[in-house]
Amino acid sequence: MRRFLLQSFLYSIILLVLGSCKTYKLADVQPISGTEKTVENLYFSSSEDYVYKCQMDIYNNHVSGILIVKKINDTMHRVVLTSDFGNKLIDFEISEHNFKLNYVLPDLDKKIVINFLKNDFQHLLRKEYPVNSRFENKESNIYLSKLDKKTYYLFFNKENGLLNQIIYTRNNKEKIDFTFAAKKHIFADSLNLQHKDFKINIKLFQITETD
Question: pTM value?
Answer without folding.
Answer: 0.86
